[in-house]
Amino acid sequence: MILIDGKKAAAELRAELKEEVAELKSKHNKVPGLTVILIGDLTPSQIYVRNKEKSANEVGLKSEVIKYPDSIEEKTVLEKIQELNSDENVSGILVQLPLPKHIDKQKVIEAIDPSKDVDGFHPMNVGNLSSGYESSIPCTPLGCYLLIKKIEPNLSGKKAVVVGRSNLNGKPMTQLLLKENCTVTITHSKTKDLKAECLEADIIVAAVGIPELVRGDWVKKDAIVIDVGINKTDNGIVGDVHFDEVSKNAKALTPVPGGVGPMTIACLLKNTIDCFKRSQI
Ligand code: GUN
């Protein structure tokens, strides 16, 4: 079984991006800039944002974090986004989710200029991805996609099963696999026989948020299994895949932690650089 080393893959991607930033700097005399807006004091969000900032600095991007208290008015956030939209030193804007209840998430996402939307959540980018046009691609599915391609460069005709249909992961993952000519089944909580669906798959991407849902006898020999889950349990953090069981069957599997997670942030940096490059044309 191949243990897919997301930490190593992310470090390699960051090294490539660092070189690219240096080239862009000598060509344009400026570097791409990422601005993250963090609202409130949720610990996981604070940790994510700190890691994003650290990684951005490491590859040579200009990075800025704007922090607001939980009580901030929606209007203030929307005005700040407008300001960042017209700031030519800002290549990418990310508003860390989740947001406090009184702030309309969709309004915030739609306020971001689609050409600076490094999350790929704006309806314009969602539409472009599903139409097969150039777009920002959500970071986690992009990271999963790059890991899958490392194991199997030619995905044409492969059967892929995506477990979970979220806008963040499941739906964009499906689009990426479709673009690679996979036959994709998207499954969810109302799927009748999830085990039977998974047993058909050459590739399984589990992004459903249920600890250790995918069991050893759900997985065909030689399947590639990507685990997006990060679930807190009494036994610590586990994924959506039962690691010990599935590692006995699968051809390749991502661990949790150390699989998809590190790739997500590296892909955010990639998206920021790609937004910058498109803005310079
Ligand atoms: N919170 C958890 N994951 C994400 C993500 O990918 N983007 C944003 N903006 N917030 C998140």
Strand count: 11
- Kindly provide the name of the CATH class of the largest domain: Alpha Beta
Q: What ligand molecules are bound, each kind once?
A: guanine
Shape call: globular
Please summarize the sheet with the most strands: 6 strands, parallel
Secondary-structure element sequence? Answer: EHEHEHEHHHEHEHEEEEHEH
- Percentage of residues in DSSP E strands: 15-25%
- Give the strand line-up of the largest sheet: 1-11-8-7-5-6
Oligomer: single chain
Overall pLDDT level: 98
Count of the domains: 2
The CATH topology of the largest domain is what? Rossmann fold
What is the fourth-level CATH superfamily of the largest domain?
Answer: NAD(P)-binding Rossmann-like Domain
Residues in helix, %: 40-55%
Structural class: alpha/beta
Number of separate helices: 10
Unreliable stretches: none
Provide the gyration radius in Å.
Answer: 19 Å
CATH architecture of the largest domain: 3-Layer(aba) Sandwich
Cα end-to-end separation = 44 Å
What's this, in brief?
By secondary structure, the chain is of the alpha/beta class.
Task: Looking at this protein, list some descriptive labels.
single chain, 281 residues, alpha/beta, Rossmann fold, six-stranded parallel β-sheet, 10 helices, globular, binds guanine
